[in-house]
Every structure is written in C-alpha cells, then in structure tokens.
Amino acid sequence: MKYIDEFRDGDLAQKIAANIAVEVNQRRSYHLMEFCGGHTHAISRYGIVDLLPDNVRMIHGPGCPVCVLPVGRIEYAIQLAQIPHLILCSYGDMLRIPTANGTSLQKIKAQGADVRIVYSCADAVSIAQRNPERPVVFLAIGFETTTPPTAVAIKQAHALGLTNFSVFCNHVLTPSAISHILQSPEVRQLGLMSLDGFIGPAHVSTVIGSRPYEYFAEEFQKPVVIAGFEPLDVMQAILMLIRQLNEGRAEVENEFTRAVLPEGNIKAQLLVAEVFELRRTFEWRGLGLVPYSALKIKSCYADFDAEQRFQIPMTSIADNKACECGAILRGVKQPQDCKIFGTVCTPENPIGSCMVSSEGACAAYYSYGRFRDAYPATKVS
Amino acid sequence: MHSGKVKRGYTRPLDLKNGHIEMNHGSGGRAMTQLIDQLFLAAFDNDFLRQRNDQACFSCTSGRMVIATDSHVITPLFFPGGNIGSLSVHGTINDVVMSGARPHYLAASFILEEGFPLADLKRIVDAMAQAAQAAGVPIITGDTKVVERGSGDGVFITTTGIGMVPEGIHISGENAKPGDKILLSGTMGDHGIAVMSLRDNLSFHTHIESDSASLHDLVATMIAAVPDIHVLRDPTRGGVATALNEIAHQSAVGMMLYEKKLPVRQQVSAACEFLGLDPLYVANEGKLIALCAPDDADQLLTAMRLHPLGNQAAIIGEVIEDSHCFVQMETRFGGKRVVDWLSGEQLPRIC
C-alpha cells in the first residue's frame, strides 16, 4: 500500500538495526520511554524489540487514553448510561473497561442501557439529531489528537441548536503527563527507574507541534525525538535518541517531519482554546492527581457539558489491589511483573485498563509478545 | 371483482412482489403450505421435497459420513458478492468438505420475522437454490418458523449438510505435525471487509466483493493431487489467525507464519488500516487453509493454483514444535510476534 509500505520496509529496518548495533555504547544502557500507546502497539506488532541490542530497553509510557482514565470516571459514564432514555456514545474500547464492582459499559449495555459504539464524535451529533426527544451524551476521551474533533462537534451542536447533545469531557494533556513522570520520586529521587529519553508522540504532535517538548529537554536534560507510528519511524527515532545520548545532547528532534511542524496545527489549537479550558487538577490512573493536565468545557458552552447538565457526584475509586496498571503506566513495572498478568487478567477478562485497549502495554504484550517469556532464548542479538 | 368470474378451485397466489411475512405463514396452516409450495419448493425443487414429508429418506453407501450445521445471522442480508441465502449454502458445504468429504445433501431451516418482505425472501431463496444447484448438493428437507416483529432480524437461516468421506482420506484438525507446510487458498479478509463497508456507521466505499463460494470442487482437486492432506479448515469468523490457533491447540503444535507471504488485496489492507483491523482476523467465506507434509506442499500448491478458487494460493508458514501452542509470525520487519486468538469481537454478525 502506497505511503504505508515504505515505512514498514524490512530491509531498511535491518539497516537501521545494524546502525543501532554499531553505535550503542556497550558500557552503558539506554532506557527509552515511548510515551504513546500507538508506539507501544507498533513496537509489539512488528517485533521491534527483536531488532534491538540487549542494552536498549523500551519503557512503555502512559499515552493510551483508555488506560489512563480512572475507574471513577468510568463509573460516572456507567451512571450516565443508566439515566432513562439516555443514549451514551463511546469509542469501542471504553466499553470493556471493568469498574471496581466488575461492571462495565458493555455489561450494562447487555442489561438494556443504550450504549452505542461510534467511530467519531460527529456520529454522536447525528444520533442526537435523529433522536431529538432523547438525551445523547458523547463520552469524550483522548489526548490532544481527539480534542479538536470534540470541539468541532460541540460547535456544530451549538450551531444546529441541539438541546439534547452533551459531552462527558475526559480530554487530557500530554506535556503535563510527561512532566509528572519526570518529577516523580521514582525517577528523581529513588532511582527506581532509569529514564534516558523519550520517543515523542506522533499524532498529538501534529496538533501541538514540537515546541512544548523543549521544556523537558532543557529542564530535565532528556532528549525527545518525535516519531511517527510506523515501525521504521520508531526504529529511526531510537537511533536518533542513542546518538543524542552518546553525544551528551538533550534536544527536541523531529523524525516525523512529514506531519509535524514546530508550531503544530494552529487552527486546531484555536478551536480547542475556544471551547475548552484547563482543569486545575485531574485524576489519572497510575499517576494520581496531576495539576493542569486535563480540559473541561468552557462556561459559554456549559449547555453541552454533561457533568454540569446531569450533576452526578464524581467519586474517586481505587484500582483493584492486585492490578499493577498504575506502576505499568508510570513505566516502573513491566506487564509481566504483574501477578495477575495473563492469568486472572487477560484480554477476554481484563482487570486493569492496560489489558483492554490494543494500545495498552499489557494487551500489546499479551497479544504479540508473550512467547518471549515462554522462550527467552528466541530473542535475537 | 364479480365472484362469478373466478375460476373454480382458484386460490390467490402468494404476492411475491409486494407481500410480507405474516404470523400465519408459520402456523402450520394453509398459508404456510402456500409459502412452502410457491416459494421454497418452487426454488429448491427435487424428488425428496416433492414427497412433502417432514424428513428426507435417502440410501447411503458404506463408509464414513460427515454432518455439519451452521446458523447464519448476517447483517446486512444482502452484500456485494452474495446474500444470506448463498452464504448459508456455501458455509455449510464448506464445513462438510473440510473433512475431505464430498457433499451430498443439505437441510435448511428458516426463522422469519413477521413483516419481512416476500420479495427479499424470494431473492434469498433463489440465491440458495442457485448456490445449491451449482454445487450439485440438493436441499432435501427444511423447516420454517415465523417470529413476531421485533423478535428476529428479518431472516435467520440454519443449514445442515451431509457428505461422504472417500476411502483412505483422514483429514482432521488434530493431524498437524511439526514440519508441515501451511497453505492458504487466496486473499484474506474479502468477506469481512465487503460486509463492513455496508454498515451505516462506517461509511466507506469499496469495490471489494465477498469471496463467498463453495469449496467442494477445490477440495476434490486438492485431494486428487495430494490424498494425504493433514488438515483443512475454512477460516471464517475470526479469520486465518483464529483458525490456525484452533488447529495448533487441537494438534498440540506451534506455528510460524511469514508476514511477507500472506496474500491480502490492496483494498482490504487499506480498509483494515483505517479501521484499525488486522486482515489476519477478518472473516473469509471462500478460502481454506491446508496443512500437509513438506514434501507434498509444492504439488498441493500447484494443484490449488490451477483451480479458479485457489489461483492466489500461497505457502504462508509451517508447523513447529511448541508446547505452548503459540502461533507466531516473522514480521515483514524481521521481528517476531504472537498471532493470538481473536479477543473480544472484531466485527458484529458477519456470517
């Protein structure tokens, strides 16, 4: 397929792998975090770990929107969906996330709640148009990539004069999450976690640009290489990070120049600024309360804010005690470090959110990589 | 109309153009008989059905018989390359012939929803009759039930097939042996993507047609070339990945696939790309997977490629020893990964 196959070329991958093998310093290790679930997925799906030397370790970051949503907010969505006549529209992955008492949007859907899977928030707006007598709520999740479309949907609903449409807003911000990880005691004080550099987000960066990352590179002296989601992008970014670390540089570099500009997508940023404002604080699964890390709908669009319209109390609910999603999302633990990984918690019966989304570290590891535990010797190099 | 002008013994025929299924079409009375006579019997016509018994009685030769049954609940009922009728014939014939059998007879059972247009039912029944006739497998008995509006989704069809396994053929999912080659008869995912493209919440346009087809003749050709085929399986729901995982577990072996060798149409891979699907998990209705000894593989591949339903056949991998029964794949990229069972539901109701 044109413009796709070029970025999945096996021969080129072998060449980059050979360069990485030559350039790594055998006396040190390289701990690189891919922030995005899209990168985690590509690494697992294409078996990129097999092409890396042993001293290059990939740490999976928290950039999976389904994974970072705390149980309390899922519980909130479940309560919304149980309001008589209400239609809750959601992206598919959200349906399977279990709450503390084992229920999920999928389960209440089976019991009769009207929960509909949509592929875009525009679909939710048209459902609202077709059902004027019923309240329709769009469960909005995601990082900066999915925020502009939600802004468009709200503006569209406003222009259409829809009084039955609202958004349960859970949009979160990438830079605050990266700062939070870098400032965490595990990284800064306790030395529990080595973190040498970041593969920066692909799609998020098309919206916010490369500038927001300059702060981390400067303040925390960690190199960032923004990379596309294709496997060759990831390989090239790893090589670029290794070069920066070898040369003692900590800069923001852009591997994804075919889509990311330094200033990002100004039009999308303006749309977001028009409809959303910063929340003072927001709870993330795994990271806890992170200041100024999420968006809420501005008061001028309050009619479209499900949290204001339905006034359900928001509660904070602790994760299942056995589940290590929190530590995995912070990069402190690997999926296979979790006692219930692959036994109690599987993609069929997920306990934690990282096992639900295909971008979650546990699901990616379980679906694509678990032969490595069974046969550690199969690892190349 | 003046009653005097109506011929003696006249009954108004079924309105196949504008009529609808009504509850009395399933009540066992005159309306049901009329539906059977004017629609089903007219289309499926054969000696067995003409006897109008509740069962079909046929003689059989000695040997191993095969029976398979399959329910069809696809939505939408009509899709590029077929409809639920042709699919219900192909699906069951394929289940029968994956044992190496020659298919002989089919039984068909219909659950119809009150209000379903008779014109649509006629299209479906005609497609079934055509598919059955093309395969030379008559539908020799059947049943019809009607459920109230809202209790069904237009029409559900269950078909059951019977066949005979030729002497000396022993094909089963538990026969895979380390070293066996894995062959696939053609491109992956055509059916699933053709059906997906019609869903109202996924508006995309494609020229892909379902691959729905009866594989009896391809199988007969393959057996003639290589009688010692170890395993045959049609990768329907869950796609090639799921079928291979089933075989790996039945035979307690592992598998290694080569991503480079997997045949996928460009339109299918493009659709999968933007829907976030993997063609390995998308349904097929006219493809088969065959496992055979490495020495037989080239001969089997040649035979498959000479057949119109196998002209894009490829050797996609091999069976390896593995107590964990993992299906693995060497990626185009040069790494390895697990090709796991399908988890959750990739597409709703596609067969």
Report on this structure:
The complex is a heterodimer of chains A (381) and B (351). By secondary structure, chain A is of the alpha/beta class. Chain A folds into three domains: 5-63 and 192-204 and 213-254, HypD, alpha/beta domain 1 (Rossmann fold), CATH 3.40.50; 67-173 and 264-310, HypD, alpha/beta domain 2 (Rossmann fold, 3-Layer(aba) Sandwich); 325-370, no CATH class. Chain A is 38% helix and 16% strand. Chain A has helices at residues 10-23, 37-45, 65-68, 71-81, 105-110, 121-130, 147-160, 174-183, 185-188, 203-208, 214-219, 231-246, 266-275, 306-310, 325-329, 361-369, 371-374; strands at residues 30-36, 56-63, 87-90, 114-117, 136-142, 165-171, 197-200, 224-226, 252-254, 276-278, 281-284, 288-291, 295-297. In chain A, the strands form four sheets. In chain A, strands 2-1-7-8-9 form a five-stranded parallel sheet, with helices on both faces. A four-stranded parallel sheet of chain A has the order 4-3-5-6, sandwiched between helices. In chain A, α2 (37-45) packs parallel to α16 (361-369) and α6 (121-130) runs parallel beside α7. The longest helix of chain A has 16 residues, at 231-246. The radius of gyration of chain A is 21 Å and the shape is globular. The two termini of chain A are 30 Å apart. In chain A, 50% of the residues are buried. Residues 377-381 of chain A have low confidence and may be disordered. Chain B is an alpha+beta fold and 351 residues long. Chain B has two domains: 23-165, PurM-like, N-terminal domain (60s Ribosomal Protein L30, Chain: A, 2-Layer Sandwich), CATH 3.30.1330.10; 181-338, Phosphoribosyl-aminoimidazole Synthetase, Chain A, domain 2 (Alpha-Beta Complex). Helix content of chain B is 30%, strand content 21%. Chain B has nine helices and 13 strands. In chain B, β4, α4 (118-135) and β5 (139-147) form a beta-alpha-beta unit. The longest helix of chain B has 18 residues, at 118-135. Chain B is globular and about 85 Å long. The termini of chain B are far apart.
